[in-house]
């Protein structure tokens, strides 16, 4: 179990079983054998990664740590299956291409695939994100409760800091939870070619009919991904911080810390979906909502989750955490020397409100009347497709 004295180690099988008593335990080695025998999975791996090579536990510390985190996500998602929870399984592609897939196989297995390329992208961003996080929340990291965290070794896998490894943990639970969301909501009823990829091969195509349905399903999967990410972070941090009876101030500090880590970790998804100003004319042909919209929807959902689950935080704290986590994550995507960077630096020099979210167009999008219309169109589109879906969870 993740006791404070053990540091930031991975959860044991006993811990999983205690968490989800009646849910069969996911075993990566067993899934690897099933993966190697699964012809439908192989076809999709080749399609998106140009290789069907999978990474076995023991290959590297990063693979080991990530497979443990994925198993934690799979256990939680399995507990939501109405029947046959063992259908949900995970695999790691050895590809250096950053991508994540949901694959539906005729063997009736629901695959979550994450590539080493994606893991490395997030791992390499994590320590920088941690440094930005410390700058954004100085009062938080000076608090007594954080002192406890400073002494823990990072999760294995090449992290310089414990904070960076925690952010990585949150980001992977969000990505894997998002793929689990596609399965739980039964999106195979729509993705009839047997897979869905976060980074599709096809460029945006303006000649096809609007792909609002694809984008609506993405938003649904994000919502489930965030829930799974939140539960995973609470489980991990409660153990690291050896939760006991806190006084009021400690409780607030604890809740702020979890909320901020959860928010910043899930927001690391922007490292893959680099946001830039919305071009509404490009939207119809895309498989995913524009990154800026996705981040705003993520921020809104996170904020709602924080309100519901962290009763000691007032609205001002909640809004501040949401704003600063967006700023931290988006700031990390801005490449030095680009036009966006020039705007970013200019705004930093001017001071005042967060510069990164202005520079990439998030601030503008918040006030764009087309955003509300777009979100409504997604909801309408989702209603239209619902009869085709095959949800695994209770609806
Ligand atoms: Zn997706």
Q: Uncertain segments of ≥5 residues (pLDDT<50)?
A: 1-20
Total number of helices: 16
What pattern of helices and strands is seen along the backbone?
A: HHHHEEEHHHHEHHHHHHHH
* Distinct small molecules bound, one entry per kind: zinc ion
Taking all Cα atoms into account, the compactness measure Rg is 20 Å
Shape: globular
Helix content range: 55-70%
* Major pleated sheet: 4 strands, mixed
Structure report:
The chain has helices at residues 13-19, 28-36, 39-49, 61-78, 116-136, 138-141, 144-150, 162-184, 212-240, 248-267, 291-309, 315-333, 339-350, 356-359, 362-366, 369-385; strands spanning 88-93, 100-104, 110-115, 195-197. It is mainly alpha-helical. The protein has one domain (4-388). It has a four-stranded mixed sheet, sandwiched between helices.
Salient structural properties:
395 residues; mainly alpha; 4-stranded mixed sheet; 16 helices; globular; binds zinc ion
Task: Offer a concise description of the structure.
The chain has one domain. 57% of the residues lie in helices and 5% in strands. It is built from 16 helices and four strands.
Which SSEs are present, and which pair or pack?
Elements: H1 13-19, H2 28-36, H3 39-49, H4 61-78, E1 88-93, E2 100-104, E3 110-115, H5 116-136, H6 138-141, H7 144-150, H8 162-184, E4 195-197, H9 212-240, H10 248-267, H11 291-309, H12 315-333, H13 339-350, H14 356-359, H15 362-366, H16 369-385
Parallel strand pairs: 1-3
Antiparallel strand pairs: 2-3, 2-4
Bound molecules: zinc ion (ZN).
């Amino acid at each position: 179990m993740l006791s404070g004295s053990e540091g930031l180690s991975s959860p044991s099988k006993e811990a999983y079983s205690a968490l989800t008593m009646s849910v069969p335990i996911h075993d990566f080695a067993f899934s690897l054998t099933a993966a190697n025998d699964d012809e439908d999975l192989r076809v999709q791996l080749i399609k998106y990664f140009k290789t069907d090579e999978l990474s076995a536990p023991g290959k590297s510390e990063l693979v080991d740590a990530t497979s443990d985190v994925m198993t934690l996500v799979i256990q939680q998602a399995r507990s939501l299956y109405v029947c046959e929870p063992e259908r949900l399984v995970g695999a790691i592609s050895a590809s250096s291409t950053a991508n994540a897939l949901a694959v539906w196989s005729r063997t009736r297995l629901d695959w979550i695939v994450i590539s080493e390329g994606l893991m490395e992208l997030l791992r390499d961003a994590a320590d920088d994100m941690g440094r930005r996080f410390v700058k954004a929340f100085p009062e938080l990291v000076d608090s007594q409760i954080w002192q406890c965290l400073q002494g823990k070794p990072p999760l294995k896998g090449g992290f310089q800091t414990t904070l960076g490894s925690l952010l990585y943990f949150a980001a992977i639970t969000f990505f894997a939870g998002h793929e689990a969301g596609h399965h739980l909501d039964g999106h195979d009823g729509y993705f009839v070619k047997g897979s869905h990829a976060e980074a599709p091969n096809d460029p945006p195509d303006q000649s096809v009919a609007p792909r609002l349905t694809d984008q609506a399903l993405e938003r649904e999967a994000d919502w489930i991904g965030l829930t799974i990410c939140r539960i995973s972070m609470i489980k991990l941090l409660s153990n690291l911080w050896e939760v006991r009876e806190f006084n009021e101030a400690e409780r607030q500090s604890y809740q702020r810390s979890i909320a901020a880590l959860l928010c910043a970790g899930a927001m690391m998804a922007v490292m893959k979906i680099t946001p830039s100003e919305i071009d509404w004319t490009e939207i119809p042909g895309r498989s995913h909502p524009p990154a800026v919209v996705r981040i705003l929807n993520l921020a809104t959902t996170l904020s709602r989750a924080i309100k519901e689950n962290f009763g000691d935080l007032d609205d001002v704290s909640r809004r501040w955490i949401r704003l600063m986590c967006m700023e931290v994550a988006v700031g990390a995507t801005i490449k030095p020397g680009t036009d966006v960077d020039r705007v970013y630096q200019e705004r930093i020099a001017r001071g005042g409100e967060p510069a990164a979210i202005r520079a990439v167009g998030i601030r503008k999008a918040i006030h764009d009347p087309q955003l509300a219309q777009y979100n409504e169109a997604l909801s309408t589109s989702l209603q239209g497709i619902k009869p085709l879906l095959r949800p695994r969870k209770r609806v």
